[in-house]
Design brief:
- This protein has a single domain, classed as Beta-galactosidase, Chain A, domain 5 (Distorted Sandwich), CATH 2.70.98.
- The termini are far apart.
- A hairpin with a 5-residue loop joins β19 and β20.
- It is mainly beta and 295 residues long.
- Helix content is 2%, strand content 43%.
- Pfam families: Aldose_epim.
- InterPro entries: Aldose_1/G6P_1-epimerase (IPR008183), Gal_mutarotase_sf_dom (IPR011013), GH-type_carb-bd (IPR014718), LacX (IPR037481).
- GO terms for molecular function: carbohydrate binding; isomerase activity.
């Protein structure tokens, strides 16, 4: 049975579920919600975590040595129950450890710690993946927060943009009908800006697999917005279901298999080989009621 844990400070209140350690609500001091409500008729997620893979495997299987294992799109962490191991007024840490179920599809002993802590007008999500085995462990990780579109600032939906920290030139990538990595796709960034509209996502996600920026701002010019910072994550995806009232800003380490990929899991694009008994860190920061020049 899942449980909701609430942390707060003077600026923000977060509700987080033990199911998937998933953020359920970001509410500001005026009672306005910034996170998608997870309407199951459209898309039931709020901000799931992607582990131990990001995206889709060819035929939903990967090879490790002479064995084959099945993993669903984005892995299993978002469907697992986490234990809250630290609970403080403005900070909470959730933990997931391997079990008989995970070892059937991912034969590695691991510890996954996800910590939320609040700062003024913002939240930080720190993730640590520890390899508890005596051999290297392959892992990817992805963040998937769905911000409301339009944001609760009074700005019209059609005026919302995504502003990148740096110029993003060249082609980008996407996924095909099977969720596998394809490219190139037309880059919608002009003068560091994507003018948001539903048609951008007719072919699923936009994937900046070699993103130059380490942060983006979402909002309508002249209004407050939200900033997502991702200094430890090398890729970024933008995704929504056309017609829905959210935009997922997804910093990733890794992505789906290319359709012709036939390699071992350690050769999968974006995989981090974590050394025995070592820990790898991932993380993002989300700022609420932020100005464009805070980027």
């Amino acid at each position: 049975m899942s449980k909701i844990i609430t942390i707060k400070n003077n600026s923000l209140t977060l509700d987080i579920s033990t199911a998937g350690a998933e953020l359920q609500r970001i509410q500001d001091a005026d009672g306005q919600d910034w996170l998608w409500d997870g309407n199951p008729k459209i898309w039931g997620g709020h901000a799931p975590f992607l582990f131990p893979i990001v995206g889709t495997l060819v035929q939903n299987h990967y090879r490790l040595g002479d064995k084959s294992y099945e993993l669903p799109r984005h892995g299993f962490a978002r469907r697992k129950a986490f234990d809250p191991v630290v609970v403080e007024p403005d900070r909470v840490c959730f933990r997931l450890k391997d079990d008989s179920e995970t070892r059937t599809v991912y034969p590695f002993p691991f510890t996954l710690d996800i910590e939320y802590h609040l700062k003024e007008n913002g939240l930080v999500i720190d993730v640590k993946v520890t390899n508890n085995s005596d051999s290297p462990m392959p892992a990817s990780f992805g963040f998937h927060p769905a911000l409301r579109w339009p944001l609760p600032t009074g700005a019209d939906r059609k005026n919302h943009i995504v502003l990148f920290e740096k110029a993003e030139v060249g082609s980008i990538s996407g996924v095909d009908g099977d969720g596998l990595f394809v490219g190139p796709r037309e880059n919608p960034v002009h003068d560091r800006t994507v003018i948001l509209n539903d048609d951008l996502f007719n072919d699923d996600a936009l994937i900046f697999d070699k993103v130059a920026s380490r942060s983006v701002w979402m909002g309508a010019p002249g209004y407050k917005g939200a900033i997502v910072r991702f200094p430890l994550m090398p890729s970024l995806a933008l995704w929504m279901k056309p017609g829905a009232d959210y935009l997922c800003i997804e910093p990733w380490q890794g992505h789906s298999d290319p359709a012709d990929f036939k390699g071992d899991i350690f050769e999968k694009p974006g995989i981090v080989p974590i050394k025995p008994k070592e820990t790898h860190s991932f993380g993002i920061e989300i700022l609420i009621n932020a100005d464009e020049n805070d980027l």
